[in-house]
# Entry
Amino acid sequence: MKETDTIKSLEDQAKNTKYLMDRLNRALYGRTMDETIKILGGNHDGGQDREKDAE
# Structure
């Protein structure tokens, strides 16, 4: 198995894990983690938007 095959396999496993966790969270809480983060106003830039808004 080549390194690129291993990386591809890990990427596929990560996608599958996210899919399964999304299904579990939707069944338990009615929404995925991504949806929860959006609702709570979270962002993926380390909070830089909040710093700009505070100015």
